[in-house]
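*** Protein under study ***
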Amino acid sequence: QVQLVESGGGLVQTGGSLSLSCAASGRTFSTLGMGWFRQAPGKGREFVAAISWSGGSTAYADSVKGRFSISRENAKNMVYLQMNSLKPEDTAVYYCAADLNWIRGATMTLNEYDYWGQGTQVTVSS
């Protein structure tokens, strides 16, 4: 079992920044691939960013490349998502997810993640 708890969401103006955090527990964190996904009202859950167990490999959705950055601290069991130059279309509930298959690397595929957090709301006002 893996427990994931997101934090750091909130309301920000267009062009602003937010930093999301995800605290993991219940399994050796350094063996987990980690990802961030988001879901806007009326839409499906979509990939945002992913990072491999070592942090050596990352992947980003085209819509956030150059604006968002994913990182992790294995010693603290934490993964982060730094979001800059935010746009109204970034408004969504953001979810942290864990992939038990550490060999896979930074996967963008939703169904390959095994555990999910409860989500944190990010709202970008225009």
Remarks:
- The longest strand covers residues 18-25.
- The chain has a mean pLDDT of 96.
